[in-house]
């Protein structure tokens, strides 16, 4: 029975050819399939661009990394990535709002003790900005040059600015507004690869069994996997069932802990 269901959105990496192929096929006459960027991939591209920038400037004799205060170290790039991802994953209503959120993170990182620039940072006790958070609690803000600070010295901030401009274009940001990720797909794929490693050759039957059991486990946990094993004609003992329920309980607990830590 036809349900007229259409998949009109595809989430993929920036260099994926899937979207172009879908447009070429034109399966839904008159309906265009829209491409959305994976926030994790966009954030990864940002970090890679930062590392490439350090390497490129080093060849020119300009040192952006090193041990100087405000240098673009690996740890600093990780902090910049975290700020960038937080902005991209915030599900803004317009590209202008998203661009503003991203650029204010650069302004935040360019601040110093002598020149704090946190006017655009979110206020309140739950703010990600340490300066605004300290003000909300009535405490003096800590130094911008602490060990866990994302402070960039003026030279580095000026060198990084074109990178922010390139990664906040209208075309790219319009595909990031929904803050979508491929996490669910990657999680399912990992379960398939656990049963059938992708670097080893396997026949069709083994791939089908691995995929079916992975889908059952992914959708219903141990209950789904036990049903699959039973349907395949294999028997289960009480120990297998108990271990399955314990595994599900452990995964739920870990997921809840992760969600609480991310809030």
Question: Overview of this structure, please?
Answer:
Helix 4 packs antiparallel against helix 6 (154-166). This protein folds into 3 domains: 1-37, no CATH class; 39-173, no CATH class; 183-262, no CATH class. It is globular. The mean pLDDT is 83. It is mainly α and 263 residues long. It is 57% helix and 3% strand. It is built from 10 helices and 2 strands; from the N terminus they run E-H-E-H-H-H-H-H-H-H-H-H. It has helices at 18-25, 39-59, 74-88, 95-109, 130-137, 154-166, 170-173, 183-195, 204-231, 238-262, and strands at residues 9-12, 34-37. It holds the Pfam family Mutator.
Write the layout of secondary structure elements.
Layout: E1 9-12, H1 18-25, E2 34-37, H2 39-59, H3 74-88, H4 95-109, H5 130-137, H6 154-166, H7 170-173, H8 183-195, H9 204-231, H10 238-262
Protein name: Mutator-like transposase domain-containing protein
Pfam families: Mutator
Domain Mutator-like transposase: 4-129
Task: Give a quick precis of the structure.
The chain is mainly alpha-helical and 263 residues long. It is 57% helix and 3% strand. The longest helix is centred in the C-terminal third of the chain and has 28 residues, at 204-231.
